[in-house]
């Protein structure tokens, strides 16, 4: 009997060794079907995983089957949005999908929450006479020491060197006006990688005004003291920096830049990339850098002023 008992024990040990890796590595496959970069965090906060749009991954803290609870986040611009606690049921050998409904709390058809009877009333109609706003026809004049380009408002897209004036006048409502400018802080004779900053002009347009004059004192830089940091790209395509501290450096999703000096506060970084339509684009990554950003995160929502490059 003893040899037979020993043989049974050996068979059990071999079977346990054979199946142990499968038990240890059994994890659910999570599929992000959304267009957002999402982060899944374990319910107990012990682990997390970040997934790029429309990607799959095995999640270490997800069970192979059964109930799966986790906290879901996505990013809008530079801010992280919490979707809340998500509860899924994992079925063996099947994928768990993260959908747009999970991001925005949209309930599937047929599961809409009922709040009981709702009394409907006809809204009171009020006729308001539209007040005509006076306008002025003005030229944009650059009296500053910087080359500037206007990024919004009636002068959007106009670029002027120091001392230049727009070729035509534009009709602008009178009253307070705020415009965003990008300006080159380096002189052509000493340019090294080119550094661009964004600034805001705030002023008042009067009825008899002929020029909107941009002077040095009008360019209030949206940035603070210099700080050294590095950045990580969560943008789901390749890009290359065309100006600034990372000029010439190319990044893929998940890549990290070299350490460089930025302004604490608002920063605008010029890039180029090839879009999903095969066209080449130029744009800006606009982010706010703080001393705690190690690394500073770049997301697709940070890309602004996107324009196709004619080839």
Short descriptors:
five-stranded antiparallel β-sheet, 3 domains, six-stranded antiparallel β-sheet, 23 strands, elongated, Immunoglobulin-like, 311 residues, mainly beta, single chain
- What is the share of helical residues? under 10%
Helix count equals 2
Overall pLDDT metric: 79
* Helix-strand string: HEEEEEEEHEEEEEEEEEEEEEEEE
Strands, count: 23
- Largest sheet descriptor: 6 strands, antiparallel
Low-confidence region ranges: 17-25, 108-124
- Amino-to-carboxy terminus distance: 85 Å
- Computed structural class: mainly beta
Rg over C-alpha atoms, rounded to the nearest angstrom: 28 Å
Q: Short summary of the structure?
A:
Helix content is 9%, strand content 44%.
Describe, in plain words, how this protein is organized in 3D.
With 311 residues, the chain is mainly beta. The protein folds into 3 domains: 27-104, Sandwich (Immunoglobulin-like), CATH 2.60.40; 135-221; 224-308, no CATH class. Helix content is 9%, strand content 44%. The strands form 6 sheets. Strands 16, 18, 19, 20, 21 and 23 form a 6-stranded antiparallel beta sheet that branches. A 5-stranded antiparallel beta sheet has the order 10-9-12-13-15, with no helix packed on it. A 4-stranded antiparallel beta sheet has the order 3-2-5-6. The termini are far apart. Mean pLDDT is 79; it is low at 17-25 and 108-124.
């Amino acid at each position: 009997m003893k040899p037979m008992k020993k043989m049974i024990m050996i068979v059990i040990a071999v079977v346990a060794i054979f199946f142990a890796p499968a038990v240890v590595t059994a994890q659910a496959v999570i599929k992000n079907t959304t267009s957002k970069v999402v982060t899944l965090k374990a319910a107990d906060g012990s682990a997390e995983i970040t997934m790029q749009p429309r990607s799959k991954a095995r999640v270490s803290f997800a069970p192979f089957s059964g109930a799966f609870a986790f906290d879901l986040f996505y990013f809008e611009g530079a801010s992280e949005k919490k979707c809340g606690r998500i509860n899924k049921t994992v079925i063996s050998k099947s994928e768990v999908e993260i959908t747009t409904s999970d991001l925005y709390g949209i309930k599937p058809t047929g599961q809409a929450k009922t709040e009981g009877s709702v009394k409907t009333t006809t809204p009171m109609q009020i006729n308001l006479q539209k007040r005509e706003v006076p306008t002025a026809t003005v030229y944009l004049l650059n009296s500053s020491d910087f080359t500037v380009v206007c990024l919004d408002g009636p002068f959007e897209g106009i670029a002027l060197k120091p001392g230049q004036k727009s070729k035509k006048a534009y009709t602008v409502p009178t009253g307070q006006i705020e415009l965003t400018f990008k300006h080159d802080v380096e002189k052509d004779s000493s340019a090294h990688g080119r550094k661009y900053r964004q600034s805001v002009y705030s002023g008042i347009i009067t009825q008899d005004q002929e020029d909107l004059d941009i002077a040095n004192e009008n360019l209030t830089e949206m940035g603070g003291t210099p700080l050294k940091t590095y950045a990580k790209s969560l943008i789901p395509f390749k890009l290359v920096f065309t100006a600034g501290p990372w000029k010439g450096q190319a990044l893929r999703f998940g890549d990290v830049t070299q350490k460089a000096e930025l302004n604490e506060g608002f920063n605008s970084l010029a890039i180029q990339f090839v879009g999903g339509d095969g066209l080449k684009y130029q744009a800006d990554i606009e982010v706010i850098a703080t001393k705690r950003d190690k690394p500073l995160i770049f997301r697709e929502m940070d890309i602004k002023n996107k324009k196709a490059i004619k080839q």
